[in-house]
Design goal:
Structural class: mainly alpha
Length: about 100
């Protein structure tokens, strides 16, 4: 008997599942560390916006939204509500789509 026949069939992943796999919510947030002092306010705003966009992009990818054109602002805002993040601005939604586009 071939060795491949003895292997158990793997569980379906998001890419081959017949229907979307439910979003796994974060188990526990990491301990936050203070940001470095002395930077201009714009740096902190941009930094926090990038972090939020990355969290949202990861959550969208986990929920089955793989293409940037599938991630409309409403979809991104619904995902933000689902994972417990304040609703993102239009700029942050644009950044989420950019992260999804350049991750390939």
């Amino acid at each position: 008997m071939p060795a491949a026949a003895l292997k158990p069939k793997p569980l379906p992943t998001q890419s081959i599942a017949k229907r979307p796999v439910l979003l796994d919510l974060p188990y526990a947030p990491l301990e936050k560390r203070p940001l470095p002092p002395g930077r201009p306010r714009e740096w902190y705003v941009a930094h926090n916006r990038r972090l939020k966009a990355m969290r949202l992009a990861i959550a969208l990818l986990d929920s089955g939204v793989h293409m940037p054109n599938q991630a409309r602002n409403e979809t991104i805002r619904d995902t933000a509500e689902l994972i417990g993040v304040h609703p993102p601005s239009d700029t942050t939604c644009h950044m989420v789509r950019a992260f999804m586009r350049y991750s390939r």
